């Protein structure tokens, strides 16, 4: 009887140990379980009462074009663009990007930053051309 209890205790201990190792390895190799999925490369919100056209150009550190798109945003509309796959992987170095935003073909602003899995460039559009600030660009991190 004592031998059976000992075998059951050893079996349960091995099971607990294996499950612990499994969960530890799982969380180390995929931290998205803990901190959530990567954030988008950028988000754009039209905070104005009118529609706007925004051209977005993104260049990597070697000045290669990563993105060149034009978006039509209605009042209150929000869009986001996902990160390239290599920027979503854990342990990958932060990548240098330069963003060039052109609003309604009239106002251009550049923004350079290092992007990691949980950093996002946030752009808000306004029609305040007279004050010289129709774009608000900030970077957020989770």
Question: What is shown here, in short?
Answer:
By secondary structure, this protein is an alpha+beta fold. Helices cover 25% and strands 42% of the residues.
- Which bin fits the share of residues in helices? 25-40%
Q: Can you count the beta strands?
A: 8
Q: In one word, what is the shape?
A: elongated
Termini separation: 56 Å
Estimate the mean pLDDT confidence.
Answer: 83
**Helix-strand makeup class:** alpha+beta
Strand content: 35-45%
Major β-sheet profile: 4 strands, mixed
Rounded to the nearest angstrom, the radius of gyration is 24 Å
The low-confidence parts are none
Spatial strand arrangement across the major sheet: 4-1-7-8
Order of helices and strands: HHEEEEHEEEE
């Amino acid at each position: 009887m004592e031998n059976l209890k000992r075998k059951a205790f050893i079996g349960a201990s091995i099971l607990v140990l294996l499950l612990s190792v499994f969960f530890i390895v799982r969380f180390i190799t995929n931290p998205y379980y803990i901190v959530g999925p990567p954030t988008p490369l950028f988000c754009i919100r039209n905070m104005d009462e009118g529609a706007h056209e925004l051209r977005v150009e993104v260049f990597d550190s070697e000045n290669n074009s990563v993105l060149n798109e034009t978006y039509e945003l209605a009042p209150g509309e929000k869009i986001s663009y996902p990160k390239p796959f290599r920027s979503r992987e854990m342990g990958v170095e932060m990548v240098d990007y330069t963003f060039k935003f052109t609003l309604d073909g009239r106002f251009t602003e550049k923004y350079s930053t290092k992007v990691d899995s949980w950093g996002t460039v946030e752009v808000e559009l306004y029609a305040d051309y007279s004050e010289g600030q129709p774009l608000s660009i900030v970077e957020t991190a989770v």
